[in-house]
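Structure, all two chains, one model.
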Amino acid sequence: MVQCLGLFHPMTLSQKEVRHIAWLARLAVTDEDVERFRTDLSAILEHFTVLQDLDTDGVPTAAHASLLDTVVRQDVSGASLSPVDVLANAPDQEDSLLKVPPILGLD
Amino acid sequence: MSMDESLCDLTIHEARSLLDSRTVSSRELTEACVSRIESIEPRICALLTVCAETALEEATKADSVIAAGDAKPLTGIPFIAKDLLCTEGVRTTCGSRMLDNFVPPYDASVISALKAQNAILLGKSNMDEFAMGSSTEHSAYKATRNPWAVDRVPGGSSGGSAAAMAAGEALFTLGSDTGGSIRQPAGFCGVVGLKPTYGRVSRYGLVAFASSLDQIGPFTRDVKDCAIVMSAISGHCAKDSTSSPEPVPDYRSLLNADIRGIRVGVPKEYFIEGMDASVRASVEEAIGILQGLGATVDWDVSLPSTRYALAAYYIIAPSEASANLARYDGVKYGHSVRRRNAEESVSATRGDGFGQEVKRRIMLGTYALSAGYYDAYYLKAQKVRHLIRREFDEAFSRYDILVTPTSPTVAFEIGSKLDDPMQMYLSDVFTLPVNIAGIPAMSLPCRPASGLPVGVQLMGTRFAEATLLRVANAYQKATEWHLQRPLP
């Protein structure tokens, strides 16, 4: 993908780009979904081109609405949720462990 | 409407006197609300969960606290919470199938604070899924109807809480606001809604949508009640590292000072082509009333960065949402679809559990943060945020409050904005800039238009909620729009 600093790409996404975004976001999508998202997202991105009008050279980024700096606390342990409470919503568990499908080793 | 049910139309401050004088019990008040919920829910569909039994038990407990002379401002007062707030032991869905079966093992900090006063949790309200929407039509469960006209939306994403407040299902409700999700539905439903300064109210237990924008706030009948609830829920919280150590003023004691000499600014970018003429007239009338009460009004203020706020918001919020919603993977809790391996299971779970609007925003955010696009979109939007904030700071050096319409229109018809996402996004154009800057703002009812509520928005500088409440209170003492109720 082309690096673009302050420049916007053509606003129409391709189906391939949509499938790539869906994969990055781990969202299973049907073919109808892909086309619908392609048109929706392209229209929204088109609207973003208005930001090109604004000169932001030298403007600092504001990642946050808060004016606080990093907040820390003393490294002291305290009361916490019990494993029983934490696992109460688990879709699948065994011996106080979460059970998940295999991550590796399947082909 | 029975005599019994009319107790639901009391304000918190009215109920407080009746409870403390033992004229009415919390049990009676809670029963009245439960009865109102039963009779009106089929029409407005505002709630996802009702906790009638536990509410009545809590009411009995509250009555003994009152009898012992230990009542606090919200003791025995029934309320409803948006389903985005974690409530221990009570199903919390966030309006999504993804959390259809989720029962939080803990209370949000604001819920703990209200329970510490023996306020009564009546239920959880409907909302746009994961707070993404402006009409509550994107709930995975059902669409909520505006109590003023059931073919109209209540607004969103806190539409259930706004509708429940307007219909008197509780004496106050809680919502959340990321781009206008308290103020816009408050405007559409004719109630008072306030979004606090970012960091004023703890976000611990508020399911995260956009962490740099989200805030919890109250819906109430009037400004006095708003001040009461704000006092109960505001303050530093050790469990939310973004919460502010700024001391909380005694909002109620600061309400009644007059507003002579208050400097009001009216930014012209909020009175646009294409907005309802009757909304404009209603808001201008409200500003005129403030002027009559002694405020000095500058009708010619300009905030040029306003036109960039929508784009900046729809880059920042979805980007943060794409990160916050990554946790929904079917592993630890919630909806879970199992396929042959972990990656397919996660994708299938998310494909199945999320609705279209949520997926749209996750994808938008993922794109904006992805390699090759991060600088052009996310970083650019953060610079625009800085400019917007700086512009508000400069305006607040010259004005105490800024006044605008809450929305360009009155409540729109159900289904009318679902075909084009941009149309829906545009309904928040007056509320979004406030979240980007992190400042507080509230919506108050002013003169209705064609029988539908209109909201006037007051904005203040950071931690100036007391000023907003004072001006709003002065307005409500001089007008009666907040006394109107939708027909039964």
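Chain B has 15 helices and eleven strands.
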